[in-house]
Known about the structure:
Helices cover 52% and strands 6% of the residues. It has 7 helices and 5 strands, in the order αββααααββααβ. It has helices spanning 2-35, 56-68, 70-73, 86-89, 95-104, 124-127, 130-141; strands at 49-50, 53-54, 106-107, 116-117, 151-152. The strands form 2 sheets. The protein has a 3-stranded mixed beta sheet. A hairpin with a 2-residue loop joins strand 1 (49-50) and strand 2. Bound molecules: heme C.
Amino acid sequence: MPHRFSLLTLAVLVIAIFFVNLLLLAPNMLAHAADKPGQAADQKPPYTVVNGKVDLATFNGYRRYGESCLRCHGPDGAGSSYAPDLTESLKHMTPDQFNEVVVNGRKNVSTSSNNVMPAFGMTEDVVNYLPDIYGYLKARADGALGRGRPKRIDGDD
Length: 157
Ligand code: HEC
């Protein structure tokens, strides 16, 4: 009788460990599967810079940034004492994460600061051009574009 009991205990233990592993590993596997699409090394960047000049979309991103974001995030996305350096943020943020923050805003309620990122979900000049703004800032984050007003590939300026 004691012998059978220990075998049963062992079987229960093995099954329990199997399920615990499954619970621990499943979220990891899901996260990796979700990561994959954004990580393709040969993916086209979300901007066009040729010899320091930009395409229309990237230039539009620069303009929209200047109108709506510069007053807090500083010239060229480089950050200020009030708002973070977006050329750093966009080294890690996906377009989805970027859109989420810009559309919904964010409030930092840490002990050291109480700075607010406004929600732009209702601002047409911003929500209609999120990919352009992301593209411009991503070009800055990647070091593909320097500071200041960019020249346009097809432009007169
Ligand atoms: C009124 C000032 C203000 C304006 C205007 C503003 N931001 Fe922000 N933004 C902030 C602050 C402050 C934070 C940090 C909030 C926090 O820490 O939770 C922030 C955070 C962000 C972040 C997250 C950065 C990170 O590292 O997590 C992004 C992306 C961002 N802003 C993009 C924009 C864009 C794009 C615009 C223009 C459309 C814009 N912001 C306009 C103040 C502003």
